[in-house]
Amino acid sequence: MSSSPTPSTFLSVRVTPAAGRDAVLGWQGDALRLSVAAPAQRGKANEAVIRLLAGALGVPRQQLRIVRGQTARRKVIAIEGLDEAEARARLDVAR
């Protein structure tokens, strides 16, 4: 018995840390723009990004991880359990 593999998606994001609020701002080219209130210190902004995306996507935080750009504004987030079309649809509704 074979089961289909769990879909996963890689999402490119551009983050503005230390903003007034946490928000999904929309698409800019192929990257999703986000703002987070947390400062870019000791991983606080990264935690806020994961929390914001998990809420917007309706998935547990454990399904998300930053795979590139830990210390940069541009990051790549791996999303387990959603394909790209479903992730984009949920993010568009979240805005």
Characterization of this structure:
The protein has 95 residues and is α+β, with helices and mostly antiparallel strands. It has one domain: YggU-like (Conserved Hypothetical Protein Mth637, Chain: A, 2-Layer Sandwich), CATH 3.30.1200.10. Helix content is 26%, strand content 34%. It has two helices and five strands, in the order βββαββα. The protein has helices at 44-57, 84-94; strands at 8-16, 23-28, 31-35, 64-68, 74-80. The protein has a five-stranded mixed beta sheet, covered by helices on one side. The longest helix has 14 residues, at 44-57. The radius of gyration is 13 Å and the shape is globular. It starts with 7 loop residues before the first strand and ends with a helix.
N- and C-termini, Cα separation: 40 Å
Name the helix and strand elements from N-terminus to C-terminus, one letter apiece: EEEHEEH
Spatial ordering of strands, largest sheet = 2-3-1-5-4
Strand content: 25-35%
Give a quick account of the main beta sheet: strands, pairing sense, barrel closure: 5 strands, mixed
Total domain modules: 1
Radius of gyration using CA atoms only = 13 Å
For the residues shown, what is the average pLDDT? 92
